[in-house]
Amino acid sequence: MAISKSELRELLVAYRQENWRGIQTDEWQRRIVQDMLAEGDEPHTFQQIADYWKPQPGMRILDVGSGVGGFVVLCRKLGLQAFGVEPDRIGQGSQITAVEIARRRLDEPAFVVGIGEQLPFPDDAFDLVVLDQVIEHVTNQSAVLKEALRVAKPEGVVYVACPNYLRWYEPHYKIRWLPLMPKTFGRWYLRIRGRNPMMLGQLNYTTNWRVHRLLRNLEPGKIVDLNREEFLRKCADGSFQSKRARFVRALTSVPLLGQIILRMTLFYLRLCEGGTQFVIVPKLVPK
What we know:
Elements: H1 5-19, H2 26-37, H3 44-48, E1 60-64, H4 70-77, E2 81-86, H5 98-103, E3 111-113, E4 126-132, H6 141-151, E5 152-163, H7 183-192, H8 208-217, E6 222-225, H9 226-237, H10 243-251, H11 258-272, E7 275-281
Parallel strand pairs: 1-2, 1-4, 2-3, 4-5
Antiparallel strand pairs: 5-7, 6-7
């Protein structure tokens, strides 16, 4: 029988205290547990890819790096055949692992222990493959992306989201960070800040350019930069909220200079964006 919400809260608190001690502050730990326990109507991922993929009952979904299982659990409640694979690599020898917590949230089996470089599934098995805040943790990013493309159906899609390490922020430690800070300097900096540098050794920096290059080398059917498309959409319909963004949009309409300004703005966004998001159609199906 699946555990109750109060039991889940206790497990999450214990798990994060054991595995994330010295990485995130107690305040961040509490906030993240609250976010994990919050139940929405549908996964945020579905909103991000709504223009490219629509969930239908019975569709098969794979969450690579499924953690404690929140995404898979919500998908299952929506009638989707969702599965998760998780190496539980972040753990520091805790008494309970992320996979064990995930398995206790559902009555039916949905989670397996494995790594993204060798997914234990056949070719063309899933309508949607999700790698959300995952590839910065893996050993071989290209191999993980290749595996995700392999297990996606011809008419399916792959969603990839990861941090942008050109930004002045480290999202796991929740602290200010030099862009692409050398790991040796980073460990020294973390110790000065009173943080455990253990996780830094598990991180491989990601940027928009790097992820796009890795994907392009795998030659999938189509690659869509979601952040870029969102900006262009707002330029087209004028839905920017800030005055600065509306001013930039106006500049992109200036004759002759508009296209130059647009390219410069898109370049700037790649540098400062908080995260990188792509939708990939692995194998375009001829019509």
